[in-house]
Amino acid sequence: MSRATDRLKVVLNHLDRSHGAVRASFTSAQNVSYHHPQVLQYTLDTGVLTPEQRLAYEENGFILIRKLVSDQDIDRFRKEFERICKREVKVPGLVVMRDVTIAKSEYVEGEKAVTKLQDYQEDPELFRYCILPQILKYVESFTGPNIMAMHTMLINKPPDTGKKTSRHPMHQDLHYFPFRPADRIVCSWTAMEKVHRGNGCLVVLPGSHHGTLLEHDYPQWEGGVNKMYHGVRDYDPNHPRVHLEMEKGDTVFFHPLLIHGSGMNQTDGFRKAISCHYASSDCYYIDVKGTTQEIISNEVKELAAKKYGVDDSVTFQDTWALRGRLVQGDRTSM
Ligand SMILES: CC(C)CC(=O)SCCNC(=O)CCNC(=O)[C@H](O)C(C)(C)COP(=O)(O)OP(=O)(O)OC[C@H]1O[C@@H](n2cnc3c(N)ncnc32)[C@H](O)[C@@H]1OP(=O)(O)O
Ligand SMILES: Nc1ncnc2c1ncn2[C@@H]1O[C@H](COP(=O)(O)OP(=O)(O)OP(=O)(O)O)[C@@H](O)[C@H]1O
Ligand SMILES: O=C(O)CCC(=O)C(=O)O
Ligand SMILES: [Fe+2]
Ligand SMILES: [Mg+2]
């Protein structure tokens, strides 16, 4: 156990001592953190996370909450997904992505062709996920009270075609985001059915959020790789990995610097999850020119130009400001 962890435990014991004395112990915790500014950097005191949960997120960069979303809600998301795949509804701005090997072979109809929906913010039925009170309650512990839903996805990981393209390479989500600070951004990812090693659950490197944003590019995979699935160029292959096996409705909240990916889907079912990346609306946009994010920014601008028929006056930042939706509090900056 590191010294930093020992200090955190001291602080959290103060916080936990008694409900009646929360205020007083918070003052004493602040006195401690005055000498150690790094204490409780990643979470906020909103009274939702227990001291143990705060400690776990600070240390690991993720926290798993079991059964946070009801079966009824998930069944509704699934129905809406099926309607979209059957083209019964048209959603403005929605990106329907096909697995690279399926897209490059014969045409397959319906949901069997779809690997991911991205930017569902204009679909009220799916967007219900992003405003579920029990999700926002947790999100506020990371972002604070002003909350934007920045990025929305429904992932339908297909059975692998044998080319291993159903994998998602290890990456940090912050690579895609031109806004900061990273600690006020969080991803909420909910399993829509049982996810396990066999169907390609999330794989995380606990504690990797303590590091910096790393260089990403396309992995050198023989069977090909999906568009924009960049991976961390070099990460420590000896870093401990955790496979997040989850039941329907279980939800993981994770930090945008946490290195994560997902394995092959070796079953014949489509592994479904729904997610939203939230940021504090007090965050600010950054210029990524000359940084490791410049390559992805150019790739996104190129796609946006094709999709919306706009010229390159639309910036990488604009593509995010257009998609972001306020879900709680005030839109102060983003
Ligand atoms: C934190 C978070 C942001 C992390 C992430 O989500 S990482 C992944 C981010 N993913 C994305 O942003 C989705 C990007 N995908 C897209 O924009 C679209 O699906 C496109 C790749 C542009 C394809 O859309 P669209 O043009 O409508 O599809 P088409 O069927 O007409 O195909 C056009 C050409 O693209 C190819 N294609 C389609 N899907 C993929 C794919 N998954 N990977 C690689 N290539 C693909 C397709 O074969 C076709 O190529 P050609 O026949 O022109 O050579
Ligand atoms: N050669 C590789 N280079 C980069 N990332 C990889 C490579 N192989 C696997 N990964 C990534 O590691 C994570 C785990 O994938 P993997 O397919 O090894 O799953 P797994 O659950 O560990 O299964 P298995 O038990 O078969 O190893 C995924 O994010 C995957 O994309
Ligand atoms: O559901 C998955 O496989 C992970 C997706 C993911 O990490 C992402 O799109 O950023
Ligand atoms: Fe991710
Ligand atoms: Mg493996």
From TrEMBL:
UniProt key word Iron: yes
Keyword annotations: Dioxygenase, Iron, Metal-binding, Oxidoreductase, Vitamin C
InterPro entries: PhyH, Phytyl_CoA_dOase-like
Annotated catalysed reactions: 3-methyldodecanoyl-CoA + 2-oxoglutarate + O2 = 2-hydroxy-3-methyldodecanoyl-CoA + succinate + CO2; decanoyl-CoA + 2-oxoglutarate + O2 = 2-hydroxydecanoyl-CoA + succinate + CO2; hexadecanoyl-CoA + 2-oxoglutarate + O2 = 2-hydroxyhexadecanoyl-CoA + succinate + CO2; 3-methylbutanoyl-CoA + 2-oxoglutarate + O2 = 2-hydroxy-3-methylbutanoyl-CoA + succinate + CO2
Cofactors named for this entry: ATP; L-ascorbate; Fe cation
Pathways per UniProt: Lipid metabolism; fatty acid metabolism
Protein name as annotated: Phytanoyl-CoA dioxygenase, peroxisomal
